[in-house]
What does this fold into?
Amino acid sequence: MAISLEDIKTPIQQELIYFEDHFKASMQSDVALLDKITYYIIKSKGKQVRPMFVFLSAKMHGETTEHTYTAASLIELLHTATLVHDDVVDDSYERRGFMSINALWKNKIAVLVGDYLLSQGLLLALNHDQFELLKIMSTAVKSMSEGELLQIEKARKLDIKENVYFDIITKKTASLIASACSAGAASVTNDKDVVEKMKQLGITIGICFQIKDDLFDYGDADIGKPLGIDIKEQKMTLPLIHALSKSTYWEKSKIINIVKNNNNDPKKVAEVINFVKSKGGIEYTTSVMKTYYEKALQQLSEFPESVARETMKKLITFTIERRK
It folds into this structure.
């Protein structure tokens, strides 16, 4: 039976309820336009998986504190800021079934809103004298920016190999989940070894999470983004990288030419998708994801048994079984 988010939320239900108020308060502004936009962001919020990682990581090592709520709010502020900025970078006009901020209020306002959310997050840590949390989050922001720029750089030549792909997704996606896990632990313990182990667990989970996202691009599920969007944006993900590695020179040249020059042609995009499937790209990528999933469970097993640890296992499993 598939694991539901509601099942995962049960042990941290009270924390998530209190977090909602904490998060709303952290976004408030005296500027009417900004307050209107942040209200819209809250209304169109996602599954809030990252705060769940914060609370479960904290409860694996102690009892949640006010620092834990600060960490969860900061993580969600940072995540929201990056989504707002990503939509500007990618010219995306839809997010989670809602119109994106840049679609409704244009790019200039969207960039400023993203900046506001990021600065609010950093101030949240400073105002609570949580300098370790500030360090964790600043490191994540740096990694995410580097990952995005590395992906853009490599998209120019479409010469990404597997090692570069993993470098990109570790920086872009895994770093934020790693910061959620390490920040949650750091909010209840000063044991640096524990915090570091939680960070490494978060990196592994984050890699699983991104590989699953990359697989969606070749599936048929209703995932809130058009099929083949990564191809249209010239993003080299693992299914395509593997397929190209199994191709002849002429096949590779043809596919790269489509990704470079015909990425807005639905028929050509479908051709790339079919090519990836015919070369075993989906099966290979799924097997890699499962390898990282097993690694995450092994890392998790090194911590003492608890309800929180068991729920964390369910959340990790959800990341690779989710439908969108």
About this structure: Residues 221-226 have pLDDT under 50 and may be disordered. The chain has one domain: 5-321.
